[in-house]
Amino acid sequence: MSTDTTTTATSAARQVEPAEHVWARQLAFLAAQDDGPRPVGWLLTPRAVVTFVCGSEGRELTLGKSVAAAHPDLPPKLTVAPKFVGDRDLVERCVVTLAGERGLLLVGEPGTAKSMLSELLAAAVSGDSTRVVQGTAGTTEDHLKYGWNYALLLAQGPSEQALVPSPVMAAMRAGGVARVEEITRCLPEVQDALVSVLSDRRISVPELSGESDGAVYAAPGFTVIATANLRDRGVSEMSAALKRRFNFETIGPIGSLEAEIALVRDQAGAALSRAQAPFTVDAAVLEVLVTAFRDLRTGRSVEGWDVERPSTVMSTAEAVSVTTSIALSAAYFPGDRDPLSLVPGHLIGVVRKDDPADADRLLAYWDGAVRKRAQDETRPRAWRHLWELRDVLGR
Ligand SMILES: Nc1ncnc2c1ncn2[C@@H]1O[C@H](COP(=O)(O)OP(=O)(O)OP(=O)(O)O)[C@@H](O)[C@H]1O
Ligand SMILES: [Mg+2]
User: Fold this and answer.
1) Residue 2 domain-assigned?
2) What is the pLDDT of residues 68-113, one digit of tens each?
3) Same domain, 282 and 210
4) C-alpha 133 – ligand 2 centre gap (Å)
5) Is the CB–ligand 1 distance for residue 118 below 6 Å?
């Protein structure tokens, strides 16, 4: 996937850029191209936000003549590639939720791009996806509300200068999007700090009540996108009061094999170009790897055979990182080993995370689906090769 950033000699290299930097040119184009009405505080129209996230479906978007003249720095035409692969209706619902200034909670299995979608939405809606609180067991109310610069607090007493706003408070002031990652990993009483934020739209700072009414109010446009992983403490444990303040959207794994293969190819390619390694994942490796991930994830092969599911989540994110690792091996150790021969070793590494019995389930997959495909002459040779590598799995 090509991006909009170019590394200049003066800018310090960063491993990860926020989405609004990566896609700066595309966001500027979409802001200029769609002049329809937009919610207060939004950079783009709701429709342009969906186009940014899901792509323009192959359509070439063009700038009107006068708009193009006013923005000579923008390309006159642009086809927007999809970033999040998934249901466009779901993304539309997310955007409508945000336009109504309601909280949005993205729930799903690990590695289904909840964080990525939240970042893309925040970047497109408010141009800043970096106002993030990462939920952990150690998250406190201060992380969601505000803290103090204690040196200033001791020297001057409570003052606006000594106040250290949380990312949520910063988003309220700016009328932007605050992101709360892994909200269900926070203690329920900490999560509930968001109830007043989302209902009263203000955070009171009693220590400053002498100065004004001591509260920080949300500017129009402020809203919260939270994510929750189904493998963590459940969303069922969220308080009813907080649940009512969020619209829930469940993000599932990618539906089609072709779309998942294309995504893994693109994302691994992008990771490799960041590593400046020549990209050498061959199509056969990609196809068997993504097929194996999907079979093990769903418990059913494409042919309809039953597959014993490991307890580990076989996520697309993990498929991307395995593909990247295999390609890096091929790039850095050329000629050592055929990339396909690395697949079983990587799969066992992915599978053997939670339950030792998962290694047996992988072996059962080999003895079932992989063997049957190997015996079928009409199948790609890669399956025969994989079957011959069964010993790598240990028995
Ligand atoms: N539907 C998808 N569209 C685009 N990329 C995807 C999709 N599913 C998975 N990915 C890939 O997975 C990567 C990781 O996604 P992300 O970290 O956002 O997942 P997550 O759902 O937040 O996972 P976790 O629950 O572990 O935090 C993405 O950067 C992307 O490479
Ligand atoms: Mg995440």
Assistant:
1) no
2) 999 999 999 999 999 999 999 999 999 999 999 999 999 999 999 9
3) no
4) 12
5) no
Domain co-membership, 154 together with 24:
yes
Six-digit token string for 322: 């395995």
Q: Is residue 1 part of a domain?
A: no
CA–centroid distance, 108 to ligand 2, in Å, is: 9
Amino acid making up residue 336: D
Name the closest ligand to CA 112: 1
Domains: count for the chain: 2
Mutate to test the pocket of ligand 1, among 115, 233, 264 (most ligand atoms within 8 A of CB): 115
Q: Residue 1 Cα, ligand 1 centroid: separation in angstroms?
A: 15
What is the rounded distance in angstroms from the CA atom of residue 325 to the CA atom of residue 281?
10
Q: Is 17 exposed, middle or buried (0-12, 13-18, 19+ CB in 10 A)?
A: middle
> If pLDDT is split at 50, 70 and 90, which confidence band does 1 have?
low
Residues 200, 343: Cα–Cα separation, whole Å: 53
Among 211, 231, 251, identify where a domain stops: 251
Residue in 105, 294, 316 to alter for ligand 1 test, most ligand atoms within 8 A of Cβ: 316
